[in-house]
Structures are given as structure tokens and as C-alpha cells.
Automatic annotation (TrEMBL):
This is HGF factor. SUPFAM superfamilies: Hairpin loop containing domain-like (SSF57414), Kringle-like (SSF57440). InterPro entries: Kringle, Kringle-like, Kringle_sf, Pan_app, Serine_protease_kringle. Pfam families: Kringle, PAN_1. Residues 5-94 form the Apple domain. One of its GO terms (molecular function) is signaling receptor binding. Keywords: Disulfide bond, Kringle. Residues 98-131 form the Kringle domain. It comes from Sylvietta virens. GO terms for cellular component: extracellular space.
Amino acid sequence: EGKGKKRNPLHDFKKTGELMLIKVNKTLEVKTKLLNTTEQCAKRCSRNKGLSFTCKAFAYDRVTKRCHWLSFNSLTNGVRKKQDHAFDLYEKKDYVRNCIIGKGADYKGTVSVTRSGIQCQAWNSMIPHEH
């Protein structure tokens, strides 16, 4: 099973059609390059290849075939969404997923309260529980 087949890098991304993210916060980083396919954009984002930041999303301009790698996603403060027919937005599922799988060691989402509504303990805190 799976011999000779390469895994599609787009499986790690959530696609939202006709949407672009605009950075209001000027410290957020973006890098662009001409690439023919969304798969090529996804592969480079997943590997952070040639990027000076951790890629959390990319937007693909279908008209100019240009990839825009983003150091942010739609949940980041200082970002606004813009409807744009030329773009498709692809966000890394790890950063927009609000569920915890297993023990949650790789969780990068935004949930910071327990199911019963108690605020989660900060990773760098030993209070109220020791690690």
C-alpha cells in the first residue's frame, strides 16, 4: 500500500477559496515567488524551505501563478480577511485546528481552556501542577 505514490502536500492544509489575508501588523512576514502549482507552494511551506519564518499558511494567486507564504494565519492578531477572486488561501491544519489529538504534544491551536471551562496552565508555569 502506498508504494510509488507520493503523499499530496496539500493534505496538511485547510483551503478557503477566494480569500486573501492582509497583514495590519507590519512585523508579520510574507514571501512571494512564481510557482506553477499549489502543491509546490504547500511543499515549500511545509518544509519552510527558503523562508526566514515558520510558514503557517500560503495564498495562491491563480491569475499570476504566484505563491505568497505567510508567517501568520486567519487566527493571528493584526490580520484581516479580504475576499479576492484571484486567491485561494491554504492554512496549515496544525495552526487552525481546535482539537487535541492524543496527549496534545504537537497542538498549536488556540484553545486555552479545559472542557469544563478552567483556564489552562502555561507551559512555563509549575503552578498549580508540576510537570
